[in-house]
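Quarterly update from the structural biology core.
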Amino acid sequence: MACIAVERRYTERGGPCACRSEVLLKYVAGAPGDRVTVGRTSVRINGIPLPSSAQRDHDSSGRPVMGLTGDFVLAPHHFWLAGLEARSWDSRYFGPVPQSLIRGVVRPLWILR
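Predicted structure, tokenized:
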């Protein structure tokens, strides 16, 4: 997944990940034991649809993208990652991520209201 992201310029080169990809910042939407249902029009975690989770047929440059479909339970030490944008490069396209590939947790310093 990291190599495709670099090849298609979804991320920049020079980072610490595979293929020298930069680190992705995503939300953890599903954790071990959660049921994930992936369809063309939405992703559901334990029956709750994720916002802006419809799969796209093409990326912003018009290149075809292949997403996952199906219904499964997240295995131990695997997480479903999601972005807030409809065109986010996230688990819809590369599947669950093993905990060993997660580099850390980001927490906000403050929240504006």
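The beta strands are 27-30, 35-38, 43-45, 48-49, 70-73, 78-82, 97-98.
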